[in-house]
Specification:
About 30% of the residues lie in helices and about 20% in strands. The protein contains seven helices and eight strands. It has an eight-stranded parallel β-barrel with strand order 1-2-3-4-5-6-7-8, surrounded by four helices. Helix 3 links the parallel strand 3 and strand 4. Helix 3 packs parallel to helix 4. The chain is globular. The two termini are about 25 Å apart. It holds the Pfam family Spherulin4. This is Spherulation-specific family 4 protein.
Amino acid sequence: MPHLTSTATGTAHTDVRLGFGIPGFAHPLVAPVEWSELTRPGTPLDWVVLNVSRGPGDRPDPHCLEAAGRLRNAGVRVLGHLDVMYGARGFGELVSDAHRYLDWYQVDGFSLDRCPTERTALPEVRRTVTTLRALCDDAHIVLGHGTHPYPGYAESADQLVTFSGAWSDYRWSQVAEWTADYPPERFCHFVHGMPRGHLEEALRIARWQGASTIYFTDRVDSGGADDPWASLPGYWDEIVSRIGTGVSE
């Protein structure tokens, strides 16, 4: 895989306590069971992304407002989805979407999806993040790179998504050596197409590579036709029971 280097000797993490980051379920009317499951007591949730309609939409959506409200009342952090389009979206558009999320859904921060990874793009991303933090007190910011970016991005966000992709790639992936300078709480891994029989192996990889926020699903990416993150994995109950107990390797 691109942008990956070998694991540095002595940097493996085997005692990482894991929690879920939900990349964004389908609309609450389409996936009511999924949204309801997120308020189940004892579910180890770090945050949930609210993606109304490729962003906040054109007007407040009462169903999304209700779903977000239930999560926040349960103490779960809700993040607004901002599509950076690898740097193609303008600063003003992103800030406008952020205002809508705050005004309509009272989000707790933002997930910047399709975030660029290059060093040259860092100043503009840093500018955006600084503005978002000014708009929202104690905002939680997640940069959704999907791979290891230039290390400087770690100084701008609370968390980085350093893997987002298929199980066939994840099981052979390696972690960038610079991540050893940061605690596991700074990194997220999202894996689709992962069979139930490999769940323990996948959890071991996440802990070994030092990523404490995860989302694994057996749903597959059908070339953009289906969103693998839109619904719960078939083994949701099993994975909740495995990591909800706080058991580590």
